[in-house]
Design goal:
CATH topology of the largest domain: Alpha-Beta Plaits
Helix content: 25-40%
Radius of gyration: 21 Å
Largest sheet: 9 strands, mixed
Strand content: 15-25%
Number of domains: 3
Number of helices: 8
């Protein structure tokens, strides 16, 4: 692998930045200053130091995205032709790291933290209900929430299906009200399930209505406050380790995104 591609894949420098750093003597390979940006490196065996930092190559890519309103959580929208979360990433990233897909889904009008990756096996485990991976959302509702409402939501409510019958009872969750002084209410809800439009349907079960919803956390990941809606960044090394520990690390080849996208749809539905 070329040095400039290696550093680009690791999220450290673009090809032009690599060339400038080579000229400044800021990069070494196995202790020897790199002389060309296209010099070959072995990602698994060579030691690359960039501006005093040892660069660790990871076969998988993890992207934190601040999903904005109106963007579809899919790799492509074949029917409506609306913008997708992948459209928010630069072509260079998707070209160098093919197979990126959203880990789970958010409703078109739900905003906040979204993880994109090409590690299909880890994504499947993170989305499995058996893993009990917590997700926290900030919400606002149209009407006030009483202490009785909060207790009912936390213990589990019956969700109705399209025919008006009982679909299921939700698992226990945590609800924290942050504002209940006006006509409506605002708060945070933490749950590990991912049923279809779950939070919306939970509030409807208490005769209320979601007016805004934003995901704040996903497992060990916390939405970076520096990311504006539509902005993204690669996970840090610490975040990557925490995420892989949460879902169980995998060292195999990246899974096919088509297979995993189907799994995502089956394990975590739109909130």
């Amino acid at each position: 692998m070329r040095l400039d591609k290696f550093l680009s894949l690791c999220g450290k420098a673009s090809r032009s930045e690599t060339l400038r750093s080579v000229r400044r003597g800021e990069i070494t390979v196995n202790g020897v200053p790199a002389r060309r940006g296209d010099c070959p490196v072995e990602p698994d065996t060579d030691t690359v130091v960039f501006r005093g930092e040892t660069v660790v190559y990871r076969p998988y890519t993890y992207v934190m995205l601040h999903k904005p309103d109106g963007v579809v959580s899919a790799t492509e929208d074949r029917l409506a032709g609306e913008p997708t979360v992948l459209d928010l990433l630069p072509p260079e990233l998707t070209r160098l790291r093919p197979g990126l897909f959203p880990c789970g889904r958010l409703d078109k009008h739900t905003t906040g933290l979204m993880l994109l990756t090409n590690n299909g096996k880890l994504a499947h485990r993170l989305l499995s209900p058996a893993r009990h991976v917590d997700k926290t959302y900030a919400f606002t509702v149209k009407f006030p929430l009483s202490a009785e409402d909060v207790a009912a939501l936390e213990s589990g409510v019956s969700l109705r299906n399209a025919d008006g019958g009982t679909d299921c009872v939700t698992a226990p969750c945590r609800v924290e009200l942050t504002d209940c002084t006006g006509r409506g209410a605002a708060g945070r809800i933490t749950l590990h399930e991912g049923k279809y439009h779950q939070i919306k349907r939970m509030m409807e079960a208490r005769h209320n209505q979601i007016t805004s919803l934003a995901r704040l956390t996903f497992g060990p990941l916390v939405l970076d406050p520096a990311l504006a809606p539509g902005a993204w960044r690669l996970l840090t090394d610490a975040e990557t380790v925490a995420l892989e520990n949460c879902g169980g690390a995998d060292t195999g080849a990246p899974a096919d995104a088509t297979d995993v996208s189907t799994a995502s749809r089956n394990t975590e539905k739109d909130k």
